UniProtKB/TrEMBL annotation:
UniProt keyword list: Membrane, Transmembrane, Transmembrane helix, Transport
A GO molecular-function descriptor: antiporter activity
Record carries keyword Phosphoprotein: no
Protein name stated in the entry: Uncharacterized protein
Transmembrane domains' residue ranges: 99-129, 141-158, 170-192, 198-223, 323-347, 367-389, 401-424, 430-452
Any one Gene Ontology cellular component term annotated for this protein: plasma membrane
UniProt organism field: Acetobacter senegalensis
Length: 463
């Protein structure tokens, strides 16, 4: 290999680091700001008591699960948008705007279905899974918090659009407004409404819904999405719009199903932990909150890689796609190591800040809490690597095989390991998290190998 070629590759690597950083850092901050609303909700519930954290926390997790599945189904439009922009020209730009408009229309339809489904799930859990008091509290909280789900869905669509068009800073502003709204609302409720009994859960749910509605509205305004919708639905004929909607759903359903396999397995495991008692559920919620927060940079990298790979796939530059994937894997691995170091250094303050009744939990767990944090750290690293590879596969519009890999990893490996180990370990929640770790590790390995294989032959178009 010539010296010129070596320097050329070196320049490409540095250029890709720069381009990834321009998308990743603002988007990562926006992701963290977005999830901070849910985390603040869990902290506020923990401030009320362990019972409120256990019941309201699992509702927040159910809402987050439903939103992520819907978001993943729609988010394929981000790769389609990137490929359309990569092709360039007036036709490519028109197709890109059409995909955005169709994604908004699909989000509107799925949001109504999601609200009804979440309420139904809580009713079923109240009847057959939760303890009586936990079930009643969960239903009270969900009755008002569920209306934040549509705002979360629309915000997710706008976040994907903003990252694909290089406007992540606008999304960051919208997320900041939502977080500020929740912080102010929760402070007022906790300050003035503590003596209202179970009604405080309803009021906390109302604050949650209002905060997400504000975040979604601000994202619409800052990205000027209304002009895009007007151009798309007025200037384009119905057959073109119908075809774009069908393309998004065709590309997105395997992604949504793959994410659903992970989230549904985790949700069922959470219900299993909830049946083991309030202390177990509180620790599980704490670990979920930590993993959720630390996954936000990984999710930002997932979207960043999807944008970059889809762009070069549209241009037919498969070697550049490989470079994007390599840079992203190293980049997010270093970020994950920094997160792990933070968790291990500050695990005690995190624990005490998140759970008000620490005596109840400490009496049940003793010194076993540090083991929980170690397992969570392993999940953080493996989740970061699988996020980068799955984003690269999505950029190639390779959907169905990764979906089968996800189902295999999270159900056949992760879920079964979790259920068996929950019976063998002193703390069921520890066994559950070791199983989750095994599933994520399997997914990371399979999807990384898959991307290397398909990129080497320049293949994958709606597979």
């Amino acid at each position: 290999m010539s010296v010129v070629s070596l320097f050329g590759k070196k320049n490409i690597f540095f250029e890709e680091i720069r381009e990834i950083s321009k998308i990743f850092f603002p988007l990562s901050l926006a992701q963290v700001m977005q999830v901070s609303i849910t985390l603040c909700a869990n902290l506020a519930l923990g401030g009320i008591g362990v019972e409120a954290l256990a019941s309201g926390g699992i509702c927040n997790m159910l809402i987050q699960t439903g939103v992520v599945i819907v978001q993943s189904t729609i988010s394929s439009f981000q790769s389609l948008l990137g490929q359309a922009r990569g092709r360039g020209g007036a036709e490519g730009e028109a197709a890109a705007e059409r995909f955005v408009a169709c994604a908004c229309a699909i989000a509107l339809g799925l949001s109504g279905f999601l609200v009804a489904l979440l309420v139904l799930i809580v009713l079923v859990c109240q009847a057959i899974v939760f303890e009586t008091s936990m079930g009643q509290d969960a239903l009270l909280y969900m009755s008002s918090a569920v209306f934040g789900a549509p705002g979360m869905v629309f915000f997710s669509v706008m976040r994907s659009y903003g990252s694909a068009t290089g406007r992540s800073a606008s999304i960051l502003k919208a997320a900041g407004c939502g977080t500020l709204a929740y912080g102010v609302g929760a402070f007022v409720v906790l300050l003035f409404c503590r003596g209202m009994g179970q009604s405080i859960l309803v009021m906390m749910g109302v604050v949650f819904s209002i905060a997400w509605s504000i975040a979604a509205t601000m994202s619409f305004l800052t990205l000027d999405i209304f002009s895009v919708l007007k151009r798309s639905f007025v200037q384009h004929e119905w057959p073109a719009i119908k075809n774009s909607c069908a393309t998004i759903l065709h590309a997105g359903w395997p992604v949504g199903l793959g994410v659903a396999s992970e989230m549904s397995a985790n949700t069922l495991l959470a219900m299993f932990v909830g049946a083991s008692g309030v202390a177990q559920m509180s620790v599980h919620q704490l670990c979920q909150s930590i993993e959720l927060l630390t996954f936000m940079p990984s999710l930002a990298m997932n979207q960043t890689v999807s944008v970059r790979v889809s762009y070069f796939h549209g241009k037919g530059e498969h070697d550049r796609s490989r470079i994007v994937h390599h840079v992203a894997m190293v980049f997010i691995f270093l970020v994950a190591l920094a997160e792990v170091a933070t968790i291990l250094l500050f695990h005690n303050p995190i624990y005490r800040a998140s759970i008000s009744d620490t005596g109840v939990v400490s009496a049940r767990f003793g010194g076993g809490l540090y083991d929980m944090f170690l397992v969570v750290c392993a999940v953080v690293v493996f989740d970061a690597l699988q996020a980068a590879s799955s984003g690269a596969l999505r950029g190639k519009l390779d959907m169905k095989i990764p979906m089968l890999m996800a189902v295999t990893s999270y159900w056949i490996v992760g879920f079964l390991f979790a259920m068996v180990l929950a019976q063998l370990t002193p703390q069921p929640v520890l066994g559950v998290w070791i199983g989750i770790c095994a599933g994520v590790f399997c997914s990371a390995c399979l999807q990384t190998v898959r991307f290397i294989r398909i990129n080497s032959v320049g293949r994958a178009e709606m597979t």
